[in-house]
Amino acid sequence: MAKGSNGRITTHRLDVNEFDEIDALAVELAETPIDVLVNNAGVLPARTWFGETDYEEWARSMRNNLFSYMKVCESFVEHVARSDRKLIMCMTSGLSSMSTSGSRSGAGQSHADGKHIYRTTKVAVNMLVVTLADYLSERGITVVSVTPGWARTEMGISDLDPGYSSDDLVDPVDSVRGMCALAENLTLEDSGGLFRWDGTTLPW
Amino acid sequence: MDSMLITGANRGLGLEWVRQLDAAGWRILACCRKPDQADELNQLANNADGRITIHKLDITDHAAIDALAGELKDEAIDVLNNNAGVLPDRDPWGQTDYEKWRRAMEGNLFSTCKMSEAFTPHVARSNRRIMITMASTLSSVSTPGGGPLVWGDEKHVYRTTKAAINMLAKSMSGYLKDMGVIVISINPGWANTEMGRADLEPGDSEDILLDPVESIRGMRALIDGLTLADSGNLYKWNGEELPP
């Protein structure tokens, strides 16, 4: 794709767990305004049941899903601030909602689906986003949490609930099309919000 | 006899829990990091005819948690009170201390989960079968709940640990429902304790802080009225619902 884009697409080697690499990339791109910063990379830890929680995995997941988002925002805030659109989108999950279980399966009536590690990282992302919205409002930067839906990707297919097939998952084309439309419509007044890929709001 | 295992029992709200439950005749398993420096707690224990026992425990030391759970394996614990926690320093925008954030997750979130995992059998064999996790005035994603700085109060590290605790309580309530264990998260209020006072803004009067006696009295009334149908709920110290 990059080769066919006449230089519009550049690829950058980056492990978001390596905070020095984030800083270095921000410096390398110091002259580049960034209209939309998407904190997209994240991990879906393996399910662990209560009583068997893997705390090392939890710590790694917090770093990868939460701390890295903040670090990317801290390092790239100037690039976003000098752009036209000034938008930061942080990927969260339907499982980040406290008031709904967020799961599609009947078993998901409760939050007991072996994903307490993932859920806590994602509700923490939502909390981070409402604080970021406040920190950055004076600079005219809009920050939102967006759940891309349970998409038919490698990660999504790896985590099907019993009784579901990949046909039940959101087409990645639809998910990204929806998020692009959402990005077009967001204003500073939406900052701090929690949105689904289709532009509707997700309950906290 | 009703019993509670409580962490962080040597000071603040933890010590007030011990005072009030001691007066009410409870069996109390009081955990703290440094029992030899917990003068007030020791004094209470010395006058309790053996109802209060003190247990040295650092809740970030998971092996120590397992060891204590083994040592107490014959005890029934009516209420597991995950009271201990940390209030990290503030992080101004752009200066987040990530190592401190990791430690705060360990001290507030992972510790609560590990304690609850290790003591599930003790709670499950009790009469009341209650586990409490500590929320905060600042733990709601839907409302800032803080002072004049609103969300951007440089406490994103603390806020994220406490929002995560509320989510953990929701998950735990689901995992433990079949065992009849009730899990709730309670915001104890911004109380007039050492930790609470440390967080006053310059010029704030201590009068805006909640009396710890009132906070614990409210939480006691709350847990007295709980049923399994309440499991997974978020509360304020006075029994009102805490927003998600």
List the SSEs and their pairings:
The complex is a heterodimer of chains A (204) and B (244).
Chain A: H1 19-28, E1 36-39, H2 55-81, E2 87-91, H3 116-136, E3 142-147, H4 154-157, H5 172-185, E4 194-196
Parallel strand pairs in A: 1-2, 2-3, 3-4
Chain B: E1 3-7, H1 12-23, E2 27-32, H2 39-46, E3 52-56, H3 62-71, E4 79-82, H4 98-118, H5 120-124, E5 130-134, H6 156-176, E6 182-187, H7 194-198, H8 212-224, E7 234-236
Parallel strand pairs in B: 1-2, 1-4, 2-3, 4-5, 5-6, 6-7
Helix pairs in contact in B: 1-8, 3-4, 4-6
Describe the structure in brief.
The complex is a heterodimer of chains A (204) and B (244). By secondary structure, chain A is α/β, with parallel strands linked by helices. Chain A is built from five helices and four strands.
Number of helices of chain B: 8
The count of strands of chain B amounts to 7
Q: State the order of secondary-structure elements of chain B, H for helix, E for strand.
A: EHEHEHEHHEHEHHE
Which pair of chains forms the biggest interface, and how many residues does each contribute?
A: A-B, 46 and 47 residues
Which overall shape of chain A is indicated by the principal axes computed on the Cα atoms?
globular
Q: Nearest-angstrom radius of gyration of chain A?
A: 17 Å
Mean model confidence by pLDDT of chain B: 96
Distance between the termini of chain A: 37 Å
How much of the residues of chain B is beta strand, in percent?
A: 5-15%
